[in-house]
Design brief:
Layout: H1 2-13, H2 18-26, H3 35-43, H4 53-69, H5 75-92, H6 100-105
Helix pairs in contact: 1-2, 2-3, 4-5
């Protein structure tokens, strides 16, 4: 979700529409199937809770903690966990975890 959101934000910053970027990404064979159900939420800025962002952050924390206790380095997971923590602190905790897009997109020129 975080990688998808970052890609949408990057495409929009370069002047592509969110839907054009999504069309390319969602047709790729390596794209996670759940993104096809999350994109309509993003397109409509409707982040009604399906799976709360705060639960995603908690799950990421549990995975990071388990990895740490077993001597496994997961730097990408830890970065994403911190991103979700920031989103939670910004008031997105009870929104759907797709709301990570809203946190990242708030600095897109011309996007409100």
């Amino acid at each position: 979700m975080a990688a998808y959101s970052e890609t949408l934000v990057l495409g929009e910053a370069f002047g592509f529409s969110k839907d054009d970027v999504a069309r390319v990404l969602l047709d790729a064979p390596v794209t996670a199937a759940f993104l096809k159900t999350k994109h309509p939420l993003i397109a409509e800025n409707n982040f009604e809770e399906h799976f709360p962002l705060c639960w995603m952050r908690k799950d990421l924390h549990l995975a990071a903690d388990a990895a740490y206790k077993n001597g496994i380095a997961l730097p990408a997971l830890n970065s994403i966990k911190e991103l979700y923590g920031l989103a939670e602190k910004q008031g997105f905790g009870r929104k759907d975890f797709a709301a990570i897009y809203a946190l990242l997109a708030k600095d897109i020129p011309g996007d409100n």
